[in-house]
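Bench notes, afternoon.
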Amino acid sequence: MKKLIYVLSVVSALPAMAQDNVMFGDKINSITMYATQSTGSGSLLKLIQPGIWDVSPQTFVMFQYSQPIQFFRLDSRLNLNMGQNFAYNSSKGLSFWGVGISVDTALLQYNGWYFGLGIGPFMRDHMDRWVESRLVFEEKIFIGKNFSENWNFEIATIHFSNGNFTAANEGFNFAGFSIGYKF
């Protein structure tokens, strides 16, 4: 019984002894810029199936301010996002500006590398033919690496849709990279 109590007390203390958040180190703020290219409209599955990507003439740029949090004891970040989709040529009329909040959680981490998922609501400046609502949800999959105490790099795929709240909900999909500065 004493051994069980000892093991339980050690295990319960582990989160308190954990290292700093993998996405922040000992820093408490981060500013990140994402640069992504459209992989076409379609479902959330496009995030994980590069073989079905259909590059379309849209470029999404997003600026993100983040602070570290814990989500079910996993390293996470709470984000304030501002983004602009620039649509051109055949995608004309699909440009939008949006602001949102999201939570990104690192599910796996090793030696400065991390893999995670993110989700959060966004409000766009208008509706369009792909998504007939201003309210959309962002889903993100990312792989990142800290390459110094203050800088990190991520490769990400991002999906925006409204969860089929309206008849038109083709969704927006993007793939690209980000560079972040932690302070």
